Amino acid sequence: MKLSKKMQSAQLMERTAGLFKCPICSTGMEMVEQAKLVCENMHSFDLAKSGYVNLAPQAHTTKYDKSLFEARTKVMASGFFKPVLDKLSSLVNDHLDESDESVLLDAGCGEGTHLKAIHSRLSMETVGIGIGIDLAKEGIAAASKAYPGFIWSVADLAAMPFQDDAVDVILNVLSPANYAEFNRLLKQGGIVVKVVPESGYLQELREAFYNGKQQKEETDPVERFSEHFDDVKSERVTYMFTLPDGLLAPLIRMTPLTWGASEERVREVQQEGMKGISIDLRVIVGVSR
Ligand SMILES: C[S@@+](CC[C@H](N)C(=O)[O-])C[C@H]1O[C@@H](n2cnc3c(N)ncnc32)[C@H](O)[C@@H]1O
Ligand SMILES: [Zn+2]
Q1: Does the annotation list 81 as a binding residue?
Q2: How many angstroms does the Cα of residue 12 sit away from the middle of ligand 2?
Q3: Which helix (H) or strand (E) element contains residue 218?
Q4: For a pocket test of ligand 1, which of 61, 119, 135 has the largest count of ligand atoms closer than 8 A to its C-beta?
Q5: Could you read off the pLDDT of 98-123 as tens digits, one per residue?
Q6: Pocket of ligand 1 (CB under 6 A)
Q7: Ligand 1: nearest atom to the Cα of 178
Q8: How far is CA 82 from CA 71, 88, 89, 259, in A?
Q9: Where are the domains of the chain?
Q10: pLDDT in tens, 29-61
Q11: Given pLDDT bands bounded at 50, 70 and 90, which one contains residue 258?
Q12: Are 141 and 169 spatial neighbours (Cβ–Cβ below 8 Å)?
């Protein structure tokens, strides 16, 4: 008989329970009755039917809702990020080459597509435990439905419900970061692989909605990153992605860039159409301190 998603996830969390810590009192956790994670002080966190666990200390509502994550999944399924994901997988693979039960954690994983894509590209020897966390419950719910076999948790990346020195690689793609927390979580010699937007990222959308105007980043992300990690390397990944039919609407929907735009302008831009869209990202890698 095929195991339910919840059961599959409970077994995985039972095997990896030593990684978790209680988000309320920081004591260790164990899987009880294949249904909930319980800490030494009896704080208890039920697994959802699809297998994820909510370990956020309080409920959060975010602007990232179900339709946004559906749009994001559709866009990502088109190969939109393929060159970036190839780059990220090769960096992760190189790092994990000699580990056996390695732990890969995506901090701010959204609907989980990137973690799944990168994990499935790892070589057989390095395939280990994949953990995706995000504060948006809708993202984690979607991830757990689509990709069993991973640990999916609603959690705050600034206070992650995991033990010190537990993780080999932290991915952090277009999401906020907390470098002190990343360093706490990483094993000695572990790495962070971060992706930040560069000036040309989705510039056609910015032109359509804001005449190309863009908020200026106050600090250089590589500089800030370098204050927390050693051996920092960074590389810009730039290409033009040809938009297939039907992809412009979900693309507009998925990005925070267009949240301020009027419905009318969204309709106009969709009617005008768009042939291609610029991808311009920076991949930054550094070693834990
Ligand atoms: C632009 S999305 C990127 C999602 C995904 N990494 C991707 O590239 O498709 C930013 C994500 O960061 C998440 N996020 C923001 N603040 C967070 C926090 N404090 N803890 C965990 N996730 C957070 C949001 O919920 C959202 O899913
Ligand atoms: Zn507790």
Answers
A1: yes
A2: 20
A3: none
A4: 135
A5: 666 899 999 999 999 999 999 999 88
A6: 62, 64, 72, 108-110, 114, 134-136, 139, 156-158, 173-176
A7: 19
A8: 17, 10, 10, 25
A9: 52-287
A10: 999 999 999 999 999 999 999 999 999 977 777
A11: confident
A12: no
- The answer to whether the annotation marks 22 as part of a ligand binding site is yes
State the ligand closest to the CA atom of 142. 1
**Which has more pLDDT, 97 or 24?**
24
Report the SS3 class of residue 272: helix
CA of 214 to the centre of ligand 2 (A): 44
Four-way CATH pick for 52-287: 3.40.50.360, 3.40.50.10470, 2.40.180.10, 3.40.50.150: 3.40.50.150
What pLDDT score does 63 carry?
A: 75
| Mode of pairing for the β-strands spanning 36-39 and 53-54 | unpaired
